[in-house]
Write a structure and sequence with these properties.
The protein has 241 residues and is of the alpha/beta class. Helices cover 30% and strands 17% of the residues. Helix 2 links the parallel strand 2 and strand 3. The chain is globular, with a radius of gyration of 16 Å. Pfam families: Glucosamine_iso (PF01182).
Amino acid sequence: MKIICVNDYDDMSKKSADIVVSQIILNPESVLGLATGSTPIGMYKQLVKAYEDGHIDFEKITTFNLDEYFNIDKTNKQSYYYYMKKNLFEKVNINMENINIPNGMADNIDEECLEYEKKIRDKGGVDIQVLGIGRNGHIGFNEPDIKFEALTHMVKLDEQTIKDNSRFFDSIDEVPTTAISMGIKTIMRAKKIVLLASGKEKAECIYEAIYGNITPNLPASVLQLHPDVIFVIDKQAGSKL
Ligand code: GLP
């Protein structure tokens, strides 16, 4: 595990974007695993800048997002599809046929999950997976007590997560209580993982993820077992290390 502790949110965004940019330069046909939430927004801005400056090209890039809320349509402004379009996809030359986000409106969720796993496998797996982290240590939407061997599946969101994510909705009652998420096993299969964290409210889970027991109670702790993982965190998120 490598830990890069930088000054602030801007530096975290630049440093993590550099890692993704170098992956794209080395392999313009890379498969990127992408995350949502407020943390990676600055990183996406940097990726857009790198594209506009002509350093990277998304034409042959494939993406797989970690998760999507259940029963929320693509056009809904709270959907992760909408988030990705707004923050990255509509700003770069990515081929929309190469982007993949779980379909929260699928009729048969089990089939959707199996199909999602198959698509990742058929593409040769994820080259670099970007992750944020929830205050309870969740990655993707893998909440505490998740089975480490889980693949893409339907998850029930924790009360803490519903509360944390309610800031993006008009009221807490509108926050979906379920979602489709890549499982821990799906995430751990990525060749490289970059986890981003910023702010003091992430200090505790970052400490536990790095130094705590490897336990499903803190899903991110499983990353201690991954052979190529980089934590890019700012001073506040790293303040308990
Ligand atoms: C959400 C997402 C995660 C994200 C996390 C942290 O619930 N499913 O992928 O990492 O919450 O979000 P934020 O970056 O806004 O703190």
